[in-house]
């Protein structure tokens, strides 16, 4: 995958990367990133790969059933997410096992492309909190911006020319240590998730030079995408 995708990404994007010093080298960890367009998992993986990490991305299970593409996902160690089913917990157990084995697991906590009108991060789902609190592994917030110029949100056609600047920034791990010994109830999971989303949003504010709305957008499945 790297041999195919890296040359394409170098040809289509201008990499503006920073914050690599926040990625742990001595243990498994979770990367939590914002999600604007379908290109995001590829650019996030590119950022990690070129800095020495083969990130295992959580991807929706239906992609694993696509001929050939699904085989590539499985062989590269990506983790299937069974969204909205009784098997949803399997995805988290797979992510936890990978982190405990010393790997980098990539999560997009929003669970889908952001529906926020100005493309700010939405309220996150609690899966990232469950993995983080179960493993006590560092959660590194990552914000990226510019992928929407390469592929529009909900778009299907790439715009590779001219090369698009893509900024990817990692921040310091989110401090969740005071939550480790608390019950994994809804309040604890929501608090941990909100801290992660706050950290991602702050990084994105710095990239964009703008301030996000004071209240985070909440999207529920079945609502309009506008």
In short:
It is built from seven helices and seven strands.
What does this structure look like?
With 226 residues, the protein is an alpha/beta fold. It has one domain: Glycerol-3-phosphate (1)-acyltransferase, CATH 3.40.1130. It is built from seven helices and seven strands. The chain has helices at 2-12, 40-49, 69-75, 88-100, 127-135, 147-150, 186-208; strands at 13-18, 29-33, 56-60, 79-81, 104-107, 139-145, 164-170. A seven-stranded mixed beta sheet has the order 1-7-6-2-5-3-4, sandwiched between helices. Helix 4 (88-100) runs parallel beside helix 5. The longest helix has 23 residues, at 186-208. The two termini are 33 Å apart. The mean pLDDT is 89. Residues 29-147 form the Phospholipid/glycerol acyltransferase domain. Keywords: Acyltransferase, Transferase. InterPro entries: Plipid/glycerol_acylTrfase (IPR002123). GO terms for molecular function: 1-acylglycerol-3-phosphate O-acyltransferase activity.
Search tags:
226 residues; alpha/beta; Glycerol-3-phosphate (1)-acyltransferase; seven-stranded mixed beta sheet; 7 helices; 16% strand; transferase; Plipid/glycerol_acylTrfase
Secondary structure topology:
Layout: H1 2-12, E1 13-18, E2 29-33, H2 40-49, E3 56-60, H3 69-75, E4 79-81, H4 88-100, E5 104-107, H5 127-135, E6 139-145, H6 147-150, E7 164-170, H7 186-208
Parallel strand pairs: 1-7, 2-5, 2-6, 3-4, 3-5
Antiparallel strand pairs: 6-7
Helix pairs in contact: 1-2, 4-5, 5-7
Organism: Actinotalea fermentans
Protein name: 1-acyl-sn-glycerol-3-phosphate acyltransferase
Pfam family, one: Acyltransferase
